[in-house]
Amino acid sequence: MLQKRGALLRMLAVSAAAVVWALPRFNRADSIFGFSIRRFTSSSSGDSDQYVALVRWFRGLGGAVDAPFAFRPLAPWLASRLPAEPMTALNLVALLSIFLGTASVFAIAHRTRGGDLRVATLAGLLFGLSFQVFYYGATGQIDAVSIGLSALSVALLVHEQLAASLAVFFIAMLAKETSIAIAPFLFLFTFPRSRARAAVVAGVVAAATVASIAIVHRVGPAVPNAYSWAPNTAELLENLARKRMYATFLLGVGIQGAAHVVAAARERGRSPWARLFDPWTVGFATSLALFAFALTTAWADARFLWSGQIFTSVTAAALLAKRDGGGATAR
Question: pTM value?
Fold first, then answer.
């Protein structure tokens, strides 16, 4: 995907920087050069205990795993193959995924913004040095795996590798169901170029979603509890009462999201409908919708906004580098 040596080396450097950015919280060490940052982080282990238990289950050690965590098998299965204790193994898989995701965003920007290395580098840095990478990347969560694969799926699509893109999308759905957030982009990016291929995208996405649901319910342990994604008022009120929810929302949207809004507002020469259904804007909007849904169904935090940064990092980089006026639309 990247032919020139200079672009490849820069992509590798930016991706490595993202991995380093995630290291202070590796295994929840919460330390930077020996200085503790625990006063700024949560003492709760969050969902990581569930994923650690799932790693142990895949290693044949038994144990109970609750829904919906038992239905996210890919990262724990990969971690179970590594010769490391479960938490460390999970975070090694996460670091690899962060590297992959950052490299993919670099490649997306390089392809869609005319091969401009400034834009590609800035896009990779905006994505790789984000709040989500630092705070959630290597803490026993599996979101980095879902995001890394989602970014790779988008990168393959913009490089006109449709079959590979859809195959990776299916794999991402095995990591976490929220990978579905990139599906509108896959369709809308393809539609203006070929309606027939867009129909293929829609069909494969639907089939991959159904197949992934069937698979994740068969490969993991039996769950001792039922789980519902039905919105409820109690969950909404609990989320709205948390001050950290507002902080993580702003940090999760980040400068990337703010810059994307500015870039979209500056665009001229397209109809309102074309601007409304711009795939990059829809990719960002889908992450906002996912966060809004999480407010009523789960513990809402910046992880639900992470997929949007695949798209906003590119448009924000174009705006900040002042290429093509920083418009939201990329080619």
Answer: 0.94
CA 106 to chain centre: 14
35 forms beta bridges with: 32
Q: What is the pLDDT along the chain (331 residues), one digit of tens a residue?
A: 666 888 999 999 999 999 999 999 999 888 787 777 777 777 666 799 999 999 999 999 988 899 999 999 999 999 999 999 999 999 999 999 999 999 999 999 999 999 999 999 999 999 999 999 999 999 999 999 999 999 999 999 999 999 999 999 999 999 999 999 999 999 999 999 999 999 999 999 999 999 999 999 999 898 877 777 889 999 999 999 999 999 999 999 999 999 999 988 887 777 777 888 999 999 999 999 999 999 999 999 999 999 999 999 999 999 998 755 455 566 5
d(CA 225, CA 285): 32
Using CA atoms, how far apart are residues 60 and 118, in angstroms rounded to an integer? 48
Cis omega (within 30 of 0) on the bond before 231? no
The identity of residue 227, as a single letter, is Y
- Encoding tokens for residue 233? 């008022």
Question: Residue 141 carries which side chain, given as an amino acid letter?
Answer: Q
- Beta-sheet pairing, 31-32 with 35-36: antiparallel
Q: Is 324 exposed, middle or buried (0-12, 13-18, 19+ CB in 10 A)?
A: middle
Asked whether the beta carbons of 100 and 152 are under 8 A apart, the reply is yes
Distance CA 209, CA 187 (A): 14
Report residue 36: phi and psi, to 5°: -75, 140
- In the structure encoding, which two tokens stand for residue 36, read together? 């503790």
Distance CA 191, CA 293 (A): 27
Domain residue ranges of the chain, discontinuous segments joined by +: 5-326
Cα 61 from Cα 58, distance rounded (Å): 7
What is the C-alpha separation between 10 and 14, in angstroms, rounded?
6
Per-residue DSSP letter, 32: E
Q: How far apart are the C-alpha atoms of 302 and 132, rounded to whole Å?
A: 7
